[in-house]
């Protein structure tokens, strides 16, 4: 190796070390110092991560304080909680919980894990680079559609327990709409900061499609029967939590009223994440009550056979 090549190799080595050091040594910055692709919410003034260009640095940033720390941890913990619940349900003996009952609950849990897992990863790697940020924001939105689809499964299953054709019809409708929501989410412009209300609107509308089977269900069971009040009551509370979260997210409240004061804590996105977790647990509680009630009633009088 001649001296020129050695010097070049040494230079590359030193440059790589300097880059590594730069990644470890990064400082949070002001909104105006961010590149345009990272400028998402101008009501958050300071504490932003700069572009890190390294997955390792992004994942290490989980343990540092910046505008995304709260968003990362809320959904990381939510994801772990639902993962533990999945293991618990899967380990129940057959006499306690039949295979079908386990399955419908676990499908819901997988929806929650996917949504919160994608969200946690998105918030972690969002500042990697424009391409990575865009790709993971699409996965984040697809996760929301998957959570909504998964939430319908146990609710429809127990709600139309003795009418399997109805619940399957609704399920096909929900899966088809979920696919449409995902295709919309894959559209490149969907993650633009200005389209926040559209994003909130698409997912809220998708969730509100549930009004149709809920009305059908109320008409069959009687709107004021005990079972209807239990199941629709919890469903309404869940809808209230999700819609409140979507509104805060779309309007960027409270940081809109306190610009620069919610940079690290109490920003709308964190509140939205917490409301999603609460809504997911409320839904879990609601479907547990529905399952208990339905299973305590015994077999259906006439239940058409399904494959
Ligand atoms: Zn989020």
UniProtKB/TrEMBL annotation:
<dbReference type="GO" id="GO:0033211">
    <property type="term" value="P:adiponectin-activated signaling pathway"/>
</dbReference>
<dbReference type="GO" id="GO:0038023">
    <property type="term" value="F:signaling receptor activity"/>
</dbReference>
<feature type="transmembrane region" description="Helical">
    <location>
        <begin position="103"/>
        <end position="127"/>
    </location>
</feature>
<comment type="similarity">
    <text>Belongs to the ADIPOR family.</text>
</comment>
<keyword id="KW-0812">Transmembrane</keyword>
<feature type="transmembrane region" description="Helical">
    <location>
        <begin position="139"/>
        <end position="161"/>
    </location>
</feature>
<keyword id="KW-1133">Transmembrane helix</keyword>
<keyword id="KW-0472">Membrane</keyword>
<protein>
    <submittedName>
        <fullName>ACYPI001921 protein</fullName>
    </submittedName>
</protein>
<feature type="transmembrane region" description="Helical">
    <location>
        <begin position="232"/>
        <end position="251"/>
    </location>
</feature>
<feature type="transmembrane region" description="Helical">
    <location>
        <begin position="167"/>
        <end position="188"/>
    </location>
</feature>
<feature type="binding site">
    <location>
        <position position="269"/>
    </location>
    <ligand>
        <name>Zn(2+)</name>
    </ligand>
</feature>
<keyword id="KW-0479">Metal-binding</keyword>
<feature type="transmembrane region" description="Helical">
    <location>
        <begin position="271"/>
        <end position="287"/>
    </location>
</feature>
<dbReference type="GO" id="GO:0046872">
    <property type="term" value="F:metal ion binding"/>
</dbReference>
<keyword id="KW-0862">Zinc</keyword>
<feature type="transmembrane region" description="Helical">
    <location>
        <begin position="200"/>
        <end position="220"/>
    </location>
</feature>
<feature type="transmembrane region" description="Helical">
    <location>
        <begin position="72"/>
        <end position="91"/>
    </location>
</feature>
<feature type="binding site">
    <location>
        <position position="273"/>
    </location>
    <ligand>
        <name>Zn(2+)</name>
    </ligand>
</feature>
<dbReference type="GO" id="GO:0005886">
    <property type="term" value="C:plasma membrane"/>
</dbReference>
<dbReference type="Pfam" id="PF03006">
    <property type="entry name" value="HlyIII"/>
</dbReference>
<dbReference type="InterPro" id="IPR004254">
    <property type="entry name" value="AdipoR/HlyIII-related"/>
</dbReference>
<feature type="binding site">
    <location>
        <position position="123"/>
    </location>
    <ligand>
        <name>Zn(2+)</name>
    </ligand>
</feature>
């Amino acid at each position: 190796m001649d001296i020129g090549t050695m010097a070049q190799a040494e230079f590359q080595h030193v440059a790589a070390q300097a880059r590594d050091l730069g990644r470890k040594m990064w400082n949070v910055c002001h909104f105006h110092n961010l590149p345009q692709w990272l400028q998402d919410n101008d009501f958050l003034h300071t504490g932003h991560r700069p572009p890190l260009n390294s997955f390792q640095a992004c994942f290490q940033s989980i343990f540092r304080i910046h505008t995304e720390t709260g968003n990362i941890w809320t959904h990381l913990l939510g994801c772990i909680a639902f993962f533990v619940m999945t293991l618990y349900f899967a380990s129940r003996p057959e006499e306690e919980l039949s295979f079908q009952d386990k399955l419908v609950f676990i499908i819901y849990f997988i929806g929650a894990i996917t949504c919160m897992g994608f969200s946690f990863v998105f918030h972690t790697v969002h500042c990697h680079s424009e391409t990575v940020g865009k790709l993971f924001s699409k996965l984040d939105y697809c996760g929301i559609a998957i959570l909504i689809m998964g939430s319908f499964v146990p609710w429809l299953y127990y709600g139309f327990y003795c009418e399997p054709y109805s619940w399957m019809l609704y399920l096909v409708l929900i899966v088809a709409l979920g696919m449409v929501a995902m295709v919309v989410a894959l559209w490149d412009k969907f993650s633009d900061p200005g389209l926040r209300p559209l994003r909130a609107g698409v997912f809220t509308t998708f969730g509100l499609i549930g009004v149709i089977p809920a009305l059908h269900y109320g008409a069959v069971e009687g709107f004021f029967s005990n079972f209807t009040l239990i199941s629709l009551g919890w469903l309404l509370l869940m809808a209230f939590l999700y819609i409140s979260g979507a509104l805060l997210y779309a309007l960027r409240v409270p940081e809109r009223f306190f610009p620069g004061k919610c940079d690290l804590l109490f920003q709308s996105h964190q509140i939205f994440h917490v409301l999603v977790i609460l809504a997911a647990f409320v839904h879990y509680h609601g479907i547990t009550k529905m399952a208990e009630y339905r299973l305590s009633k015994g077999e259906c009088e006439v239940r058409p056979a399904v494959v």
